[in-house]
Amino acid sequence: MTARRRLVPYGLLGPGAIWLALFFVVPMYFMGELALRTGTFTEGFQSGFEVSNFSDALSGNTTQFVRSFVYAGTATLIALLIAYPLAYAIALRAGRWKLLLLFAVVAPFFTTYLIRTIAWKTILADESPVVSVLQALQLVPEDGRVLATGGAVIAGLTYNFLPFMILPIYASLERMDTSLIEAGKDLYASATQTFLRVTLPITAPGIVAGILLTFIPAVGDYINAEILGGTGTSMIGNVIQSLYLEQRNYPEAAALSFMMMVAILGVVLIYLRLAGTGAFMGDEEERG
Amino acid sequence: MRVVLMALVAMAASLVLAACGGDDDVGGGSDQEVEVAEPGPPVEGEFNISNWVGYIDKGEGSTIEEFEAKYPGTTVNYTEDVNDNADFFGKLQPLLDQGESGGRSMFVVTDWMAKQMYDLGYLQEIDYADVPNVDANLKESLRSPAFDPERKFSIPWQSGMTGLLVNQALAPDIKSINDLFDPQYKGKVTVLTEMRDVVPLMMKADGVDPEDATKEDWLEQIDQLQEAVDSGQLRRFTGNDYIQDLTNENVVGVIGWSGDIALVENDDVEFVMPTDGCVLWSDNMVIPVGAPNTAAALAWADFVYDPKVQADISDYVRYVSPVQGIEEVNPTLAKDPLVNPPEEFTADCTTQPDPPGSAEDVQEVTEAFQAVVTQ
Fold this sequence. Notes:
- The complex is a heterodimer.
- Chain A is mainly alpha-helical.
- Chain A has a single domain (63-287), classed as Orthogonal Bundle (MetI-like fold), CATH 1.10.3720.
- Chain A is 75% helix and 2% strand.
- Chain A is built from 14 helices and 2 strands; from the N terminus they run H-E-E-H-H-H-H-H-H-H-H-H-H-H-H-H.
- Chain A has helices at 3-35, 52-59, 62-93, 98-106, 113-123, 129-136, 150-174, 179-186, 191-219, 223-228, 236-246, 250-275, 277-281, 284-287, and strands at 38-40, 44-46.
- In chain A, helix 11 packs antiparallel against helix 12.
- The longest helix of chain A has 33 residues, at 3-35.
- By secondary structure, chain B is of the alpha/beta class.
- Chain B has 2 domains: 45-153 and 287-305, Periplasmic binding protein-like II (D-Maltodextrin-Binding Protein, domain 2, 3-Layer(aba) Sandwich), CATH 3.40.190; 160-280 and 352-373, Periplasmic binding protein-like II (D-Maltodextrin-Binding Protein, domain 2, 3-Layer(aba) Sandwich).
- Chain B is 36% helix and 17% strand.
- In chain B, strands 1, 2, 3, 4, 5, 6, 7, 8, 9 and 10 form a 10-stranded mixed beta sheet that branches.
- In chain B, helix 6 (195-205) packs across helix 7 (215-230) and helix 7 runs parallel beside helix 13.
- The longest helix of chain B has 20 residues, at 2-21.
- The interface between A and B is large, with 48 and 45 residues.
């Protein structure tokens, strides 16, 4: 092996590594440093080692912390339940409609995130047909509402991140060898058994990727709670926004952001551990 | 390849060094001396102004085009990127702290925010000799506000009243701020995220004069707000996105800003002066530190204080005009109580106050209010 060839992997890693160093590691350092500063905005925040910023930031905001994970978790679950059958239909049953359906999944991205979310205010307005139907079905009380509730926030999160769930699942279904399903049938497995023991394990990497791509942005989101939420539906993103812009408590805002990131990282690591990194990587060995 | 990599590494290293080197305070304001904005002539070149949404007609033959016609060689970049005082401050503060304005020659913020920016050394002062129209036509009642008694750093763009916007078909009984808390309107009313509007209005309804209020009075009203949140009475806290909720009839009554009535597309919705009075405020043109082309900024402020120009602006926005003399240009407009409120209409109103006490006291009240908003 020549020296040149040994350098190739580093060369390939280089741009990404430098990008991460500049735009992730350096800002992280500043955020961490800011989270430990003391003082007030008017007098300036001096360098320090004020660990209590972390406990202060957490103490008043545990409800919002838990709520963020509950909302994002619920939205991810609903998105999975919607996305899997849809991806399955597109990948294996759509025939010549495949491209058109895929386009329909991606089409909302041609409009900005904010506009799409505001559009939901009209869909879920108190006097809207959608809400009338829900009331007729007694899913929403007669004098109840959907907009400006936690339900609306979860609906918004589900809608906005659904394509991130559909696309990876679609990709894994698409490249699946369908003769495996036939093999399952040849071996007298029922449709359910075939699905559970053949299709589902093969598409596990897509599911794991979809869950990560949906959950992580959803848990830190603040737009949906801001626009579709009411009182008592704030997520941690809204608290950070308030701490930074309204209360100008930069250290506590940084501390809260930091803790949020660590919490997400923790949840993701536990999850990957349970799901197995092999599933994420699409490792043939681990699937057995 | 290797050269590119090395250059990138060097760039990264210098960025890290530059960033770690300065052990400056974050926040705390600028130590520079206050400058006075430099006037023209010549008035030419690019002029960047940031204003709130819907505060000028940007269509054909607009005020902006008239200004460009009056000063050939001037290009106005009018951006509607002020949505919220605190948000705008948060976005700009790191720049202003370095003595820069992000290319803006002028922007428009509310009284209390203008005062905070000035105290932090982020604004330039204005010599009234450079803006003769303002000197001549600024309404008497606005010449000496508490936050800027000599109008050294602020010129009102438009003024307004914070009161009630009510759907008269669905809730004709809402006349006082207290009526918003009537259980029959549960989940159908909203209040603003702007503490300096909401808390003083609630005080007035409870018979407390906001100008003599103590910190405890502020905190007590915030507790009451908390109760209204807990009971489900309040639907949400809003900026002027209540416009959509009023249009769709998701809400029947809100605490809102007078001129927004022009933007609500529902004929049943009207501005109601609360029986206990309103809160008065102005959004002010200010010239930030490091502003390019202050000559154009001063010329612009002077231009919009020409009653003829102001009448066009007023006709479009329906906020309270700070300029006297529009009645001669447009007598019908001058009869609109939202544009030119007679003295008896605003008799019970209060100028928007700050919470009393030291910076720490204000911080305490702000935190208490924000804790209610971000539940």
